[in-house]
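Worked problem 6 (solution included).
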Amino acid sequence: MMGAAVDQIDWIAACAHRLHRQWRSVTIEDVEAIAASLWRDPVFKTMTPVKAAEQWLEPVLPGGEKQAPF
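Solution. The predicted structure is:
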């Protein structure tokens, strides 16, 4: 669970950074929009930003066998 020290802006920025590391071809504006969407999700919001991004990316990361989330 996230501590109170991480506010919405920092959480979204950290999550977007992790998403962008995986998706260099996607604009930062798009990954920020995805990160903001994850912040609004009550399940993802309880995770660290990196964990939320990685869980959301799981279907497209090496070894992921689920259908892509997009």
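Discussion: The two ends are 26 Å apart (CA to CA).
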